[in-house]
Design a protein that fits this description.
Length: 159
Amino acid sequence: MNFSFSNLKGISIFFAVCVLISVIPPGLLFIHMFIPDLASTYNFGYVLILSISIAGPPWLINSFLSTLVSSEDNNSQRNSDQKKDEKEDKEEEDDDISETAGMGAVFGSLYNLVLFYIPLLIKFFFDTNLKWGVIFLLTIEVIIIVFTSSMISLSSKNQ
Protein backbone atom coordinates (compact mmCIF):
# COMPACT_ATOMS: atom_id res chain seq x y z
CA MET A 1 0.00 0.00 0.00
CA ASN A 2 1.69 3.17 -1.20
CA PHE A 3 0.97 6.54 0.32
CA SER A 4 0.65 9.55 -1.93
CA PHE A 5 -0.38 13.10 -1.14
CA SER A 6 -2.32 13.20 -4.40
CA ASN A 7 -4.78 10.66 -2.93
CA LEU A 8 -5.70 13.00 -0.08
CA LYS A 9 -8.84 15.05 -0.44
CA GLY A 10 -8.91 18.70 0.52
CA ILE A 11 -11.43 18.06 3.25
CA SER A 12 -9.15 15.43 4.84
CA ILE A 13 -6.31 17.92 4.97
CA PHE A 14 -8.67 20.49 6.52
CA PHE A 15 -9.66 18.03 9.27
CA ALA A 16 -6.02 17.15 9.96
CA VAL A 17 -5.10 20.83 10.25
CA CYS A 18 -8.07 21.42 12.59
CA VAL A 19 -6.91 18.59 14.82
CA LEU A 20 -3.30 19.78 14.88
CA ILE A 21 -4.33 23.37 15.63
CA SER A 22 -6.65 22.31 18.43
CA VAL A 23 -4.26 19.89 20.14
CA ILE A 24 -0.68 21.14 19.90
CA PRO A 25 -0.89 24.92 20.56
CA PRO A 26 -3.30 24.70 23.51
CA GLY A 27 -1.14 22.03 25.15
CA LEU A 28 2.04 24.05 24.59
CA LEU A 29 0.44 27.20 25.95
CA PHE A 30 -0.97 25.34 28.95
CA ILE A 31 2.50 24.02 29.79
CA HIS A 32 4.13 27.41 29.19
CA MET A 33 1.59 29.32 31.31
CA PHE A 34 1.14 26.91 34.21
CA ILE A 35 4.52 25.12 34.32
CA PRO A 36 7.07 27.57 32.87
CA ASP A 37 10.06 25.76 34.44
CA LEU A 38 9.18 22.59 32.57
CA ALA A 39 9.08 24.40 29.23
CA SER A 40 12.52 25.91 29.75
CA THR A 41 14.15 22.81 31.29
CA TYR A 42 13.35 20.13 28.70
CA ASN A 43 13.89 20.17 24.96
CA PHE A 44 11.07 20.93 22.56
CA GLY A 45 10.42 17.30 21.59
CA TYR A 46 9.58 16.26 25.15
CA VAL A 47 7.42 19.32 25.72
CA LEU A 48 5.61 18.68 22.42
CA ILE A 49 4.85 15.07 23.36
CA LEU A 50 3.64 16.22 26.77
CA SER A 51 1.43 18.89 25.21
CA ILE A 52 -0.16 16.32 22.89
CA SER A 53 -0.72 13.99 25.82
CA ILE A 54 -2.39 16.81 27.77
CA ALA A 55 -4.64 18.14 25.01
CA GLY A 56 -5.20 14.93 23.01
CA PRO A 57 -7.50 12.96 25.34
CA PRO A 58 -10.00 15.81 25.80
CA TRP A 59 -10.06 16.23 22.02
CA LEU A 60 -10.83 12.52 21.60
CA ILE A 61 -13.67 12.69 24.15
CA ASN A 62 -15.12 15.86 22.62
CA SER A 63 -14.83 14.52 19.07
CA PHE A 64 -16.49 11.25 20.04
CA LEU A 65 -19.41 13.05 21.66
CA SER A 66 -19.72 15.44 18.71
CA THR A 67 -19.72 12.50 16.31
CA LEU A 68 -22.53 10.91 18.32
CA VAL A 69 -24.56 14.13 18.04
CA SER A 70 -23.91 14.32 14.30
CA SER A 71 -24.81 10.67 13.76
CA GLU A 72 -28.08 11.11 15.67
CA ASP A 73 -28.91 14.08 13.44
CA ASN A 74 -28.06 12.08 10.31
CA ASN A 75 -30.15 9.14 11.51
CA SER A 76 -33.16 11.38 12.09
CA GLN A 77 -32.77 12.87 8.60
CA ARG A 78 -32.33 9.41 7.05
CA ASN A 79 -35.46 8.09 8.79
CA SER A 80 -37.51 10.93 7.32
CA ASP A 81 -36.36 10.06 3.77
CA GLN A 82 -37.03 6.33 3.36
CA LYS A 83 -37.95 6.34 -0.37
CA LYS A 84 -34.50 6.06 -2.01
CA ASP A 85 -32.81 3.45 -4.17
CA GLU A 86 -30.52 0.85 -2.57
CA LYS A 87 -27.51 1.94 -4.63
CA GLU A 88 -27.97 5.62 -3.89
CA ASP A 89 -28.58 4.77 -0.25
CA LYS A 90 -25.27 2.86 0.03
CA GLU A 91 -23.27 5.69 -1.57
CA GLU A 92 -24.96 8.27 0.63
CA GLU A 93 -24.32 6.14 3.71
CA ASP A 94 -20.57 6.08 2.99
CA ASP A 95 -20.61 9.85 2.46
CA ASP A 96 -22.64 10.31 5.64
CA ILE A 97 -20.13 8.32 7.71
CA SER A 98 -17.14 10.37 6.52
CA GLU A 99 -19.11 13.61 6.87
CA THR A 100 -20.22 12.67 10.39
CA ALA A 101 -16.69 11.78 11.47
CA GLY A 102 -15.36 14.98 9.93
CA MET A 103 -17.95 17.15 11.63
CA GLY A 104 -17.22 15.37 14.92
CA ALA A 105 -13.52 16.16 14.51
CA VAL A 106 -14.20 19.83 13.73
CA PHE A 107 -16.62 20.31 16.62
CA GLY A 108 -14.29 18.37 18.92
CA SER A 109 -11.54 20.77 17.87
CA LEU A 110 -13.71 23.79 18.64
CA TYR A 111 -14.67 22.37 22.03
CA ASN A 112 -11.01 21.67 22.75
CA LEU A 113 -10.03 25.24 21.94
CA VAL A 114 -12.72 26.57 24.28
CA LEU A 115 -11.72 24.04 26.92
CA PHE A 116 -8.08 25.13 26.99
CA TYR A 117 -8.22 28.84 26.22
CA ILE A 118 -10.65 29.75 29.01
CA PRO A 119 -8.24 28.59 31.78
CA LEU A 120 -5.39 30.24 29.87
CA LEU A 121 -7.27 33.54 29.80
CA ILE A 122 -8.00 33.23 33.51
CA LYS A 123 -4.30 32.56 34.14
CA PHE A 124 -3.37 35.56 32.00
CA PHE A 125 -5.51 37.96 34.04
CA PHE A 126 -5.29 36.36 37.49
CA ASP A 127 -2.47 34.65 39.33
CA THR A 128 -3.60 31.02 39.48
CA ASN A 129 -1.57 27.87 39.89
CA LEU A 130 -1.59 24.51 38.10
CA LYS A 131 -4.14 23.07 40.52
CA TRP A 132 -6.72 25.72 39.62
CA GLY A 133 -5.91 25.39 35.94
CA VAL A 134 -6.68 21.68 36.05
CA ILE A 135 -9.86 22.35 38.08
CA PHE A 136 -11.00 24.86 35.44
CA LEU A 137 -10.22 22.34 32.67
CA LEU A 138 -12.18 19.57 34.35
CA THR A 139 -15.14 21.85 35.13
CA ILE A 140 -15.38 23.06 31.55
CA GLU A 141 -15.02 19.49 30.24
CA VAL A 142 -17.90 18.36 32.46
CA ILE A 143 -20.01 21.24 31.12
CA ILE A 144 -19.17 20.22 27.54
CA ILE A 145 -20.02 16.57 28.26
CA VAL A 146 -23.36 17.53 29.83
CA PHE A 147 -24.15 19.83 26.90
CA THR A 148 -23.38 17.24 24.23
CA SER A 149 -25.14 14.49 26.16
CA SER A 150 -28.26 16.64 26.34
CA MET A 151 -27.97 17.24 22.60
CA ILE A 152 -27.79 13.47 22.02
CA SER A 153 -30.83 12.82 24.20
CA LEU A 154 -32.79 15.63 22.52
CA SER A 155 -32.03 14.38 19.03
CA SER A 156 -32.93 10.80 19.98
CA LYS A 157 -36.26 11.99 21.44
CA ASN A 158 -37.09 13.78 18.17
CA GLN A 159 -37.01 10.49 16.23
